[in-house]
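[job 4417] fold queue: 2 targets
>>> target A
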Amino acid sequence: MSETAAQETTGEQPFVSHLIELRDRLLRIVLAILILFLGLFAFANDIYHYIATPLMELLPEGQSMVATGVISPFLTPFKLTLVLSFYIAIPYILYQVWGFIAPGLYKHERRMVLPLAASSTALFYIGMAFAYYVVFPLIFAFLTTTAPEGVEVMPDMKDYLDFVLKLFFAFGVAFEVPIATILLVWMGATTPDKLREKRPYVIVGAFVIGMLLTPPDMISQTLLAIPMWILFEAGILFAPLFMPKSDHEQDDTPPDDPKEPEAPPSASTSSSTSPADTTEAEPALTEHEMEAELDRIEKEEDAEERLEREERARKKALKEADNIRLDHYEPPISDRYEPLNEESERMLDEELDMMDGVVDSDPPSESERN
């Protein structure tokens, strides 16, 4: 049981270490957001006033925003400051995510992730700025003029914050379209040519996404859909720079002509290989000469085959002889016994004859023995 427990502990140790590292990085992210929040909370009301400026400047004279909830004057700026702290900490959050996944990436993937992370962060901030400086004035100018006669426009500060945070997030994510396009091409899921073919569907999809992410008015929907389409075109423009190397080489090299084109024959080469010159340099053989040449080639081939067979037979015989020596090897008898007399020498000769396979048909007589 102790060995099994040790093996389980050893197998789970890498996973536990990853969990510990993930916990540490999450704590750093939370700590960074908390520090930013504590630094910005003293200016919470000023931050909310800055965010509400696009609407407050367009309200009719004598009208302003209201707070219908009891704790809205405190809770709404608090929520805005907390969300703003998260948005400001996005670069640090991405850095912590990068530090966690970087050991599992290849070298070329590491070179790609850093620029994509930096550009995605910049595009997210650009989308938020576009929403604040371009979209908000147009939307609020339209909404404040559509109120029926006798209705005072006095938006609730909590509803206004929910509205602008939704638009901030929608435009921030929409401006990530070039990054999504580049990633799809980089992973090999599609190609720039295929994306160009699907341009009509992308335009329709941009307006559908604009309808879902923005309030129910044509201005915000159009102001979100058009930038998404333009950014999609920008992604197609830069996507070939991030295509996989193998796919790029396959596009550059036509499959029907993988070899280099041969150089055209020169005039001297063509003249030297003309039929007339060939006939003069090498006259045609007669039938008898051709048969003699074929016989000579066959004899040479037969001689080569015979030599190969002899060589194979010689190697086989040597191998068999080596096996026989190994099977019948015995140390010399002279090394095993004392100096031999006549009788011992006779017995030794008989033993050697038996080892060599020589057997006399008649046993020696007594006179021969003596």
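>>> target B
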Amino acid sequence: MNNTMMRKPKVVWKLPSITTFGLKVFACVTLLIYSIGASFVQDGLIHLDNYTQAELAQALEADSHLMMLAGIGSAMQIIGGFAVPLFAFLAVEGFRHTSDYKKYLLRVLALAFISELPYDLAMQQSFMDFSMQNSVFGIAVSLMMLYALDLYKEGKGVVPALARICAVVGAFLWVSLLRVQFGPSTVLLAAIFYLFYARNVLKTLLGLLVSLVHITGPLSFYLIWLYNEEQKHEEWNRWFYLFYPLHLLVLGIIVKFFMS
């Protein structure tokens, strides 16, 4: 028999790829899961603020249903950790590809301020609460930091290096003092993604270390490795901007006025 007839066809394994649109969808879905767990489950169903730590432990021990709800809420928030590295990565991609940095920054800042009332309503059941700020402020501060890093990206020597360090430390302190949700990790990840953009192994190792604080955050790096840099479905961008305040507003109204 001819040897060529005996040969098995060659199987070529090809990794899947994901576009910017795909990353945004995945990030929004996991963020929605986080928000439902934190607002609807923990605040709306469990009323977590009504318990001290000791009282909660006793209540969970005495009520298996309450324990199940607490487990579900915690699991949903852990899943939300996927979103943090993705939003930091997307902020860097947006910075690199935008044709107008000022307009881009102003859009993000406007979104941060618009989202603050829905965020307070969903997470604190209050119309104004300064104990923690919404995560879009972390992206806005990251964009300012990236601008400063970009000014010194070509510089060599002590002065440019110190300028880059000051930009990152300043952004980190800013989001920490403002108590921005996911702020410190967002800033650090954005700095890593930008400074080590072409050094995939180092970028991934450093990013994984920072992302460990969110438990599931390191898993997002699989999607980042599959990113193909294609900018598709840009007409959906306005909906991605609207998603954040709208989903928080809906959750806030449900929890504040129908479950309190």
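[job 4417] complete. Note on B: The chain has one domain: 17-258.
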